[in-house]
């Protein structure tokens, strides 16, 4: 009987975080491509664009004027997907079920510079972004009507990003979003069965094997997950068990900023283009429970496959059956290892302690520190 060769033969891989499978077809990388090719975004953005609604000092669509911020700036999204006053009413008529979903949508500008990306920013400036994520997690997660804080960034026109100014979003929801609910359920079952967090055990196994490791520092490891769907999909995992941003030490916040800088700069070197992606952090629910099963982590989902102009499409079998990929995670990790940034900016880390950073500029919401909370979450 022929032995299964994961580098050459079609096979499927199991994702223990979701309980789902992905089809891997490495032999398809040999096929010619005659499909759609994307245009490469034009370079040469201005440091300040007077028409950009995220640049410092400019008017936004709702008529508010941005402050002349010098580092990060946080504000409520002018066109939020969630209404803060949506009623909790539930409609249940057999198979017709709906319920109100309230929440808050925030925008975080990473820098006043219109022409930067995370890959181009100094690590010390990315540390300020991490600090803003910490404060928003505490501030929003401390509310009794919020069950989850989802931090994410869409980078590049190909990912539907409507503005090139470096920014991300924070959506805080009344209920757990689907992906968090799936991951939480699987992590809880693993902890019950094995007595250890799933992603802590997974990282230990990957470090022993090393073939999918992209880079690492004292506190975080970047890897291409065994079950990755997107061609250059990666995860950033902490070395110790950390449930959420508010549990990060100052040293870990700095190390996370360095890991983000390293990975995004590697991405840009793969095809010598500003790499598009959707990325985000999954962290424990904000109901005040310990959630020992949860391990905070980042997902990066870049769409590019063969070049700067050829992206992966999720269509056909992937929409009706299960996800499928051609490039193996092992090959993707090797490409990313080879794309190591030269003269890493992380080697020029700022000597300013994190506690000495200016607080992020934010509209309308003073920072509220989390306190022990026992009141039940609304059903």
Describe the structure using short key phrases:
alpha+beta, single chain, ten-stranded mixed sheet, 6 helices, three-stranded mixed sheet, 17 strands
Explain how this protein is built.
- The protein contains 6 helices and 17 strands.
- By secondary structure, the protein is α+β, with helices and mostly antiparallel strands.
- It has one domain: HIT family, subunit A (2-Layer Sandwich), CATH 3.30.428.10.
- The strands form 4 sheets. A 10-stranded mixed beta sheet has the order 9-10-11-13-12-7-8-6-3-17, sandwiched between helices.
Give the helix/strand layout.
Layout: E1 11-15, E2 20-24, E3 73-76, E4 90-93, E5 96-99, E6 103-109, H1 123-141, E7 148-155, E8 167-173, H2 178-194, H3 198-209, E9 213-216, E10 220-223, E11 234-238, H4 250-270, E12 277-282, E13 297-301, E14 304-307, E15 310-311, H5 317-320, E16 324-325, H6 329-338, E17 361-362
Helix pairs in contact: 1-4, 4-6
């Amino acid at each position: 009987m022929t032995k299964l060769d994961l580098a050459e033969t079609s096979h499927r891989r199991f994702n223990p975080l979701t309980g789902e499978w992905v089809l891997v077809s490495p032999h398809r990388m040999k096929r010619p491509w005659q499909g759609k090719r994307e245009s490469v975004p034009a370079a040469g953005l201005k440091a300040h664009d007077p028409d950009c609604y995220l640049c410092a000092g400019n008017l936004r669509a709702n008529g508010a004027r941005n402050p002349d911020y010098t580092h990060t700036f946080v504000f409520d999204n002018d066109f939020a997907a969630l209404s803060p006053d949506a009623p909790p009413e539930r409609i249940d008529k057999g198979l017709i079920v709906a319920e109100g979903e309230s929440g808050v949508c925030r925008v975080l500008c990473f820098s006043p510079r219109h022409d930067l990306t995370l890959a181009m920013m100094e690590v010390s400036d990315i540390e300020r972004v991490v600090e803003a994520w910490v404060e928003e997690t505490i501030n929003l997660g401390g509310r009794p009507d919020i069950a989850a804080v989802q931090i994410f960034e869409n980078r590049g026109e190909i990912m539907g990003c409507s503005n090139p100014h470096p920014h991300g979003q924070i959506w805080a929801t009344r209920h757990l979003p689907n992906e968090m609910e799936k991951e939480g359920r699987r992590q809880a079952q693993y902890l019950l069965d094995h007595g250890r967090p799933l992603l802590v055990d997974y990282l230990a196994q990957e470090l022993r094997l090393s073939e999918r490791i992209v880079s690492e520092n004292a506190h975080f490891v970047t890897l291409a997950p065994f079950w990755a769907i997107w061609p250059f999909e990666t995860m950033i995992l902490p070395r110790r068990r950390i449930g959420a941003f508010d549990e990060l030490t100052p040293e870990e916040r700095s190390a996370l900023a360095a890991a983000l800088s390293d990975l995004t700069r590697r991405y840009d070197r793969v095809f010598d283009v500003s790499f598009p992606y959707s990325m985000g952090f999954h962290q424990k629910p904000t109901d005040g429970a310990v959630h020992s099963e949860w391990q905070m982590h980042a997902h990066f989902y870049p769409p590019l496959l063969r070049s700067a102009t050829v992206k992966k499409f999720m269509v056909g079998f992937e929409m009706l059956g299960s996800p499928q990929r051609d490039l193996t995670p092992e090959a993707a990790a090797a490409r990313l290892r080879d794309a190591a940034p030269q003269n890493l900016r992380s080697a020029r880390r700022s000597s300013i302690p994190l506690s000495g950073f200016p607080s992020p500029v934010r509209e309308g919401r003073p920072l509220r520190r989390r306190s022990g909370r026992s009141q039940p979450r609304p059903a």
